[in-house]
C-alpha cells in the first residue's frame, strides 16, 4: 500500500523534491530530474540515466561521483517526456558527450530515443543504452527483447566508473555495452504493489505463491510456484543465471535486490544461501551488494543480478562511488558545484515565415483547439476504457497534452511562426506535458508530421498526406508496437494507408480524410477482441478483452474531429 | 509478511551472518553479534549497542568508524542474552571502558544491566544508557518510562562521534545522556508485521486508519485516526515533538524513519512537508536523514525523530561516520583489523570445593534434571498458553534453557564444583541458551540464589530460604515487573513470602516449600483475570484475559517439581 501523499498526481514530483532536499550534498533539482551538486570536470562524458518513478533508488539515488551525472524522473511507472530527457541532458553535458542509460521499456526507448535524436541535432554526441538484464523476459537468443531490472545499477556503475576515469565517449559506450551483455538478472515476486491513490493493487500474486520472472510493473512472468525455503530460492535464482554463464568466467559481481516490502534481514538470510551456491559453482564473488536498488513501490519479492567479470569490468566494479545509494571505497572528496542552474526557458523564437504559411499555422492552431475541446470532453470516457488494461490515466494525459499543444500553437502563431513550426511546437508541448508513452507518441507524430510542411508555403493537400506517412514512420521507428498489439498503431496504420490510397485515387483531401477516419474508427472498435502485448501485467491484459484500446479510440476520435474541421473550413 | 527463511528459529542468526558477509569491510561476526573489522585505537571508549533482531539496520548496521564499535543481536524482537552482551563487550573493549546503549525495554534493561554488572566485576568500566525517545510511550514528566525507537540512531551517533574523538568514558557518557535527554520521536503505524514462520500478523491496524504512537513491537499507542494527507501527517508529527522543544532551541537534527513497508518515495514526499513545518517553527534543520533506521520487519508506518541541538551536539551530529547505514562526510580511511577473534570458550574451571558442598552440587544437578524433564513435557502446553499474549515461544525457551542448565550443572559437577558454582553455572547457561526476557529472568534468579550457597559447605535449609529471597530481589531489581503485571513475578512473590513465613514459623523446609509451591500455583491460576502490562501489543494483551500467564505457570510448575524432589530426597 502506498499511503503517504497529498495529491496522487504530484507523488513523483514531491518525492523527487524531498529526495533532493535530503541529498543536497549529492544532487540538485532541475525540472524533471536531478543533476550532481558537485563539480564535474569539463570534457567528462556525462552518464545520464532515468525512467519512471516508483523504483527508488532507481534512478535519482544513483547520481554522484563514480556513478551517474544526472537522472530523469517520469511519473510513477511512466517514462519521462522527451523534453525532460533532453533538458536534463543539456544540464549534465560537459562537452564530452552523453551516455543515456535506461531500462528497455517501450516508453523509455521512445522518449530517450527521440531526445537523443534531438540532442544530436543540437550538436551533442549522445549514445543510448537500453539495459536488458532480465532473463525471464525473453530468451537468450533475443537479448535485445529483454527488459531492464536491477541490472540497471550494475551497468550504470560500470559506465559511471569509466566516465569518472576520464575515458572518451566511445570507450564509455563500449564498456557499458560490454557490461550490459554480461549482466543477467532473475527475480521472484510474492505480492504486488499499489499506486498512490489507487483503491487496490496494480497486480497481485496468489497468496503463498511466488511469481517467477514477474516484471517490476507486473509484466508477465514465466510461471508460479509455491513459496520455497530460502535455500531452495537461492538454488532457483542462481540456477537460472548460471545457465547463461559465459565459458571461462571465474568471478562475478552480485546484487541481491529487494523490491520494496521484502526486508533487509530476509535478503541477508537469502544472501548466505546464494553465496554458498555461487561458491559451489566455482565462482568468486566480488564486492556483493544486498539491499534495495530497483524497487516497485511496496512490491514484495527480490531479484538476483550477476555481472560476469573480466579484469576490465572488475576494476570498474570495484572503483569508488559516492551516490546516495552506493558509497563504495574511500570516498572521493568532491567540491560543491558553484554555477547556478537556470531552468527558466524563455519564449521560443521561430524562423521567419511567409504570410501564406502563417495562415496555415493559424488554421492548424484552430484545429488543435477543436481537438483539445474534444479530448477534454472525452477525458472521463477514455480514462474508463484505459482502466481495463492500464492505470486509467489515458484520458488525463490526452487532455493535458492537447491543452499544452494548443497553448504552444497559439504562442507560435502569436510569434509569427509558419505552419511547420506551429505543428512542431504543438507536438513538443504535447509530449512534454502529457508524459508517458502516449504523450511521447503524440508528440513524435505531430513533430514528424510537421516535417512535411514548411514555414515558407501554404500547407498543400499532398503535404498533409505525406505528413501522415511521416507520422506513422516516426511512431513505428521509435515506438515498438505493431498492428495487433492493441495500441494506437492498430488505428493509425489503416488511417494512413486509407488516406494514401484514397488520395492516390484522386479523391479530394476532405473525402479521403473522411474515409480514412472511418477506417480508423472501425479498427479502433476491432481492438476489443485483442489482448494487449508489450509486457502489460497479465491479469490486467486479460481483463481488457472485450474492451477497445484507449489509444486507438482516441486516435479515431482525433481523426474524426479533424475531418469535421476540414469540412467546416472548406465550406467557409 | 516475512517470506524468506529456512528454519524460522534461525532467522536472526542467518540474517546476521548474511549481513556480516556483505559488510565484511565494516564488521566481523562473533557469537551473538558483530564487531568492527577495522582497527580501533587502544584506549578508545567502546560504544556497544544492541537489542532484538527484526529492526535492521538497528543495530548491526550502525557499526563502523564514528558510530558503534559492536552490536549484540538477540532473536527476532527478543533481547540478546546476558552472556551474549557480555561476550560482545569483551571483544569490543579496548581498555577505555564501554558505553552500553539499547532501547528502554524490559528484556534489554535486564540483560544489558546484568551483563554490565558482570563486566564491572571483571574490571571493565561499563555505563548503561537506555534510550528513551518515544514521546507517545510515557509523559514528559516520566521520561525514564519512555521506550526507545528511532532515537537510537541519534543517541548512538552522538556517543560514537564522542568516542571516536578520543573523549574519556565519563565524557562519552555525559554527551550520550545529554543527547538522549534532547532526543524526541513520534511515530504512526498503518499496518503490522509478521514474524518469520507465523501464520498471521503479530498485530494489525484497522484498514484506512493510522495508529498514533504504536510501538515497534505493537506496544499500545495513544489513539487511532483516519489516515491523513502527507501535509497533515507532517503537522501531526512535528506538532507532537515541537510541544517538547526546549526554550531557546534554534537548530535540530532530524531523522525521518520508515518502519519497513513504507517506501523511500513516501518518506521523501513527507519530508518536504516536515521541512516546511520545521522552518515555519523557526527551526534550522541540520543534516537530516530520511530512510530506514529502526524497522519492524515489514511493518507499515514511519516516525520522526528530532535532536535539539546546541553547539556541542551539532558538531558531533555533523562528524563523519562510516557504518553500513550511515556514511557521513568524507570517509575516514580505516585499516582492516588484523587480530583474529577467538570465540571458542574452553571448559569452565571452578573454585576448589568441599566434599559436602560437592554432594549438594550433585543434588542440585539432579533437581535441575527433574525440572528439565518436566519442562520438556510441558513445552507444548506452555507454548499454547503463551500464544494468547505473546509469540508462543515460552515453552521452547524454558525447554532450551533448562536443558542447557542441566548440561552446565553436570559439567560443573564433573569438574568438582561446589553447590554455589553448580547453581551459578546452571543459571548462566539457562540465560545464554533460552534467550529473551524469561531466559534472562531464570538465569538471574538461579545465579542470585547461588549467592546464598558456598563451595565450602553443604546447602542448609536456611540457605535455601535465603536464596529464594536473593532470587526475588535480583529479579525485581533488574526486571521491571511488579505484582499484578501478569508475569512470573505474580507467582514468585507469594512463593518466596510464603516460604519465608512458614520457615520462620519453624516448619521443616519440605513442608514450608510445599505450602509455598501451592501459593505459587494459586497465584499463577489467578493471573487468568489479569491483563499483561509492560508494553504488550494491545490486541494480544486483551486476548490473554481468561488465560493465565505462561511465566507464572512455569514458575509454579518448577516449584512443584522441586518440592516433589525434596520430599523424595528426604525419604531416600
UniProtKB/TrEMBL annotation, chains A, B:
Pfam family, one: Dak2
GO MF, one example: glycerone kinase activity
GO cellular component assignments: cytosol
Domain DhaL per the UniProt entry, residue ranges: 362-564
Keywords linked to the UniProt accession: ATP-binding, Kinase, Nucleotide-binding, Plasmid, Transferase
Gene Ontology process terms (BP): glycerol catabolic process
Matching PANTHER family: TRIOKINASE/FMN CYCLASE, TRIOKINASE_FMN CYCLASE
Protein name per Swiss-Prot or TrEMBL: Dihydroxyacetone kinase
Organism of provenance: Sinorhizobium fredii (strain NBRC 101917 / NGR234)
Classification lineage: Bacteria, Pseudomonadati, Pseudomonadota, Alphaproteobacteria, Hyphomicrobiales
